[in-house]
Amino acid sequence: MTPVLIICILSVFAYFTKGVTGAASAIVFNAGLLTALALGLTGGLSLRDGLYWIAIADVFASALMALLFWRKLKLERFTLLLLAGMVPVTVTFALLLPRLELRWLSLVLALAVLGAGMYLALRPDHPPASLRSVNRWALPTGALAGVLSGLFGMGGPVVFILLSRASDDPGVFRNRTVIITNAAGIARLATLAAGGVYTTTHLAWFGYALPVIVGAMLLGIRTHRRLKPRPFRIVLGGLVTLAGIGGLLRFALLD
């Protein structure tokens, strides 16, 4: 496969998921990228280039979702506290990304994807916690999520834990993730761009995939009301877990 083809295929699944949930596109994209790398199907697309590309695509997709749902979005103390912890750490680890050794980076990503998949598949359904409780945990949760956000653009596994405790309303969940992904995504993209990592090739890949991103996300938005959250979450978690296992196998078998 060519890099453009693999990016477009992964974008279908990643941005359909984003349309449904408001987030998780980077989790799905990175899981698919690990699988493609393990099978030798990326056509020369490297892990680092994939991580750079998803920053561009996610900022566009998050901005589009904010435009579509702007009337429902509102800033809350909880969200602001989470972002206060998340954004500075996102910037710090985005600065580190171009300097990290690729083999160990792939191991960290595989472990993060594996953890995300297991969480999505196995997370128990608890009733929402009190506002005071989630506010207390928002800042440290955001800081921890910033590590994965800066390196891989996927702070979701950590953020989802707190968001799912804050509310069991899928609409509220999606509206909060739209705000969070916009702020963290812009911080990550601006940091990577300032570091000079982007080339015309990355922009060309984004241009080719743009219709796929928009179409898949709009389909996900239309599907949002029809899907039952729990079965969707379990299936998605199982697929992401398998991708994480594949990434670990790739790390173990390749020099």
Detailed description of the structure:
With 255 residues, the chain is mainly alpha-helical. Helix content is 80%, strand content 0%. Helix 1 (3-21) runs parallel beside helix 9 and helix 2 packs across helix 5 (102-122). It starts with a helix and ends with a helix. The mean pLDDT is 84.
Give the helix/strand class.
mainly alpha
Distance between the termini: 23 Å
Assign a percent range to the helix content. over 70%
Order of helices and strands: HHHHHHHHHH
| Share of β-strand residues | under 5%
Main sheet? Answer: none
Low-confidence stretches: none
Can you count the beta strands?
A: 0
Query: What overall geometry do the principal axes of the alpha carbons give?
Result: globular
The residue-averaged pLDDT reads 84
Radius of gyration: 17 Å
Features:
255 residues; mainly alpha; 10 helices; globular
Helix and strand arrangement:
Blueprint (H helix, E strand, L loop, with lengths): L2 H19 L3 H15 L7 H22 L8 H20 L5 H21 L8 H22 L3 H11 L3 H25 L5 H24 L5 H25 L2
Helix pairs in contact: 1-2, 1-9, 2-3, 2-5, 2-10, 3-8, 3-9, 4-6, 4-8, 5-7, 5-10, 6-7
What's the gist of this structure?
With 255 residues, the chain is mainly α.
